[in-house]
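Hi U.,

Before I forget, here's the chain from the pilot set. I'm dumping it here mostly so it's searchable later in email.
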Amino acid sequence: MVNVKDLERYLIDKFEDIKGLDVRERGLNIQFTKEFISTIYGPRRSGKSYFFYSILKDINEGKALYLNFDDIQLRDWTDDDIMGSIPLFHECFGKEPVLLMLDEVQNVTGWERAVRTLYEKKRYKILLTGSSSKLLAKEISTSLRGRSLSYPMLPLSFGEYLQFIGRGTTIPRSSRDIIEMRKTLDTYLSEGSFPGPLFEKDLIGKFYEDYIDLVIYRDLIERYGISNLGLLKFMIKNIIRSFSKELSINRLFNDWRSMRYEASKKTLYQYFSNLEDAMFVFPLKKFSRSQRTSDLSIPKVYLPDTGLPSYVMGYQKGRAMENTVFLELYRRKAGQSGIKLYFWRERSSEVDFVICKRDEPAELIQVTQTLAKDNREREINALNSLGDELGCDKKKIITWTGEEEAGNGIEVEALWRFLLETGKIGIK
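Structure:
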């Protein structure tokens, strides 16, 4: 059980450490309110704790109760300790906190009971983070019974990346500035967008090795009790190598069995679900008017960052472009209600993204490095065919330069320009 002196020392030390950090702003806009619990969820190392630090940097330690449950000092805390920290805070500072900030709260057994109880007092603004989409997106609505607003935090968007490296996000106009923007985007795609190694280029390889180990050991083996480590590594390797492509769990099962290893197909599906919960993989289902057909379709898979596959198997620009567009669409849809993302495939024809608003197709997007002789007809025909079938007139092709022409009402846009756009998706 924590005591007054330990808590006071912990908070003062934390605030002193934070004030000495070079903390940079993120693009996440959260409206704090006592009426809802704000929750931030995302993959490990995406910058959730540093987002907390950016809030705390300008707050007096007598106003905010900040507890990081990844900290070894708090490793044995329970829901009772969270509740008990409020009166202890009062003893330390002579008043109750205005803001409660609980970082990596999923590490505390029974955290839901404590947070619900504190919320019901209506005396605090509460902000939570966690490294699990299941915990803080799917399950939190049940755990907190509609009392929360959830915000995803991924690694840096391109706009955030530009600001982190000291460049503005103003749309370039001159040819020279556009060329420089493309060079910066190429680095962003190939080296990745996790904040940690941004200024330590020599550590990028070590970072990704540690990241995979962290996902395996912290978020999967410890949390879910996974026992077949070899199968898990096999699945992670295949997910990385399949990024921006379809991935069949049934095929993985057959490949695993062909090597004379034992595992049930159910185990593979469970491991894939665990990896999704840890936000290591983002599956995208095929569009169909039948929800059941869509749910049963083989998904395309995307990663939270494009530096990881570049480190594992070399930079693949076209696939990295598509993965980055997916992540940007994922960010944008989080701020809108009723938006869903799909892909579409029929025989040899494919559309990378079908954006639906309230279950109706609202926009179709293709991603390709360039519209050239060998792919122009295929990319354009796929958009036109699906657009006619679905009655969807808003069609776009995202290319590296954005300087091609497509005709038939299809907009062609440069990737850098698309990533720097602000606004909503799926709406004319």
